[in-house]
Amino acid sequence: xxxxxxxxxxxxxxxxxxxxxxxxxxxxxxxxxxxxxxxxxxxxxxxxxxxxxxxxxxxxxxxxxxxxxxxxxxxxxxxxxxxxxxxxxxxxxxxxxxxxxxxxxxxxxxxxxxxxxxxxxxxxxxxxxxxxxxxxxxxxxxxxxxxxxxxxxxxxxxxxxxxxxxxxxxxxxxxxxxxxxxxxxxxxxxxxxxxxxxxxxxxxxxxxxxxxxxxxxxxxxxxxxxxxxxxxxxxx
Length: 236
What we know:
By secondary structure, the chain is an alpha+beta fold. It folds into 2 domains: 21-49 and 198-231, 2-Layer Sandwich (Alpha-Beta Plaits), CATH 3.30.70; 57-195, 2-Layer Sandwich (Pseudouridine synthase). It contains 6 helices and 9 strands. It has helices spanning 35-48, 64-73, 83-107, 136-141, 161-173, 223-231, and strands at 20-27, 50-51, 119-122, 128-130, 145-151, 191-194, 196-197, 200-207, 210-218. The strands form 3 sheets. A 4-stranded antiparallel beta sheet has the order 4-3-5-6. Strands 1-9-8 form a 3-stranded antiparallel beta sheet, covered by helices on one side. A hairpin with a 2-residue loop joins strand 8 and strand 9. The longest helix is centred in the middle third of the chain and has 25 residues, at 83-107. It is globular. The chain starts with 19 loop residues before the first strand and ends in a 5-residue tail after the last helix.
């Protein structure tokens, strides 16, 4: 990647200020006959969304940030001295557990389906509510609402029913509990994150240089995850 130009803005970019990003990517080394397949996948994800995974870059080179977080939060090692590093490591562990829950939903065919007790997010307003209505499944399919997963923390809103059971099972599998989350509430209060994300205004073309992709994503979503869905390969 080559950065052609950079300039400073007069105001600092703070958390929550960024609405989204627009990506224009060239992918080299893709066979010419792959274009129809990639186009079909792009049309599908523009309707269903893509899994809202955290990309590998979230976890540091070789997963080192996750390893450091596990030593502190799971194995009882001394925490980092700097608050920034403590917050980073908590965020890394939260992200890994979110990814694990999302992978479980994909495995069980629940990516674009409503589960009893899901904490849903309204696509238009961002409002949250707990779902117990079977009719919500059709609203998920229509992309009116999306199920959310946890960025685990002591102050987050919890789901109910089967969705809650899944989250508590994941906590237990990682050696944590709801009560244990209080130990890092100052640097990781917790929140919800949709399990899927829209791909806005996608476009695809091909020439001798490869595939040319363009799409928009909201803040917090990873273009590398979209590429993985389209190419069925981990981009590096």
